[in-house]
């Protein structure tokens, strides 16, 4: 199966069709994605600033890592899952988008950078756990981590500005007004905008 | 409000932003998201400390000393970039339900954080001792975090105000 067949099969899947046909699900998935990535970036930044000796310098690094990083992984799971759901609604378009591709590359780099940290500075943690900052290699990976994650945020926003959202195949049957009988003024709901700005 | 939004869209700064729309707006939005990350993680760490789930090697005061300034700084960045977004696209922002609920919750969230900081300074002993062990205080910490989660979600929903159906002013006009 070549890639375009695969992307088309993702797009025609039941989940993707369901998301496209709803007025509400895509916006809610995207909102959750923003919440998740804010948590990922925010918690990683706390760790990076500790490594750099900028903040939390009097705390044990090991203690901080065990307090925080589990939440980073939970948030990353939420962000990756919501990202995948957005991707399958319009897989062909996202796959060929320059900013999407660069973002995926940056995510891979973030992973490699984390591995480098784990294999170098983290190995000698007993020597600098209570020191105000990490050794040079640890500080380098911290700077790279901050740069990579901020770049990922920018690239993500650029995907929204350079792609159009998939149009629903059938008009949505459920709309917000039906959920609250009596509040509707009897007119049809506004047409959703066809972009993700 | 629509009239004010239309007037704002004719101001010099607004026109400058509109003319460079293709990169200015996404740049401001991206910086806004970076700021959100700093703010939400700062609130999260203080709330986890109150709940007793993280930072238990630190006092509550040490925790707020660490994250308070970042929270304030982050909020300033959000206010500046958010303000530029309103000036740049006043109709899109001001004529939505999500924006106004969000602004209300931002006011509530900021008020809670301010009252907490003042109270902690005044009754430090009580906060470090009995306060943070009370179930009501732990609930408040959880609710505070959920307010900031709602703020983030509503922020993104400004782009999709149709989700509010006939409640959306954009729908009526």
Give the gist of this structure.
Chain A contains nine helices and no strands. Chain A is mainly alpha-helical. Chain B has nine helices and no strands.
What's the SSE blueprint?
The complex is a heterodimer of chains A (197) and B (173).
Chain A lengths: L2 H9 L2 H8 L3 H28 L8 H29 L1 H6 L1 H22 L5 H4 L7 H27 L13 H4 L18
Chain B lengths: L1 H7 L3 H8 L1 H31 L8 H29 L1 H5 L2 H26 L1 H5 L6 H23 L11 H4 L1
Largest interface, with counts of residues having CB < 8 Å to the other chain, equals: A-B, 48 and 43 residues
Approximate helicity band of chain A: 55-70%
Question: What is the C-alpha radius of gyration of chain A, as a whole number of Å?
Answer: 21 Å
> Count the helices of chain A. How many?
9
Report the structural category of chain A.
mainly alpha
Overall shape of chain A? elongated
Beta fraction of the residues of chain B? under 5%
Query: Helix-strand pattern of chain A, N to C?
Result: HHHHHHHHH
Largest β sheet strand count, sense and barrel closure of chain B? none
Helix share, percent of chain B: over 70%
Distance between the termini of chain A: 34 Å
**Number of structural domains of chain A:** 1
Provide the structure class of chain B.
mainly alpha
Low-confidence stretches of chain A: 182-190
**How many structurally independent domains of chain B?**
1
Order of helices and strands of chain B: HHHHHHHHH
Task: Give your account of this protein's structure.
The complex is a heterodimer of chains A (197) and B (173). Chain A has 197 residues and is an all-alpha fold. Chain A is built from nine helices and no strands. Chain A has helices at residues 3-11, 14-21, 25-52, 61-89, 91-96, 98-119, 125-128, 136-162, 176-179. Chain B has one domain. Chain B is elongated, with a radius of gyration of 19 Å. Chains A and B meet through helix 3, helix 4 and helix 8 of A and helix 3, helix 8 and helix 9 of B.
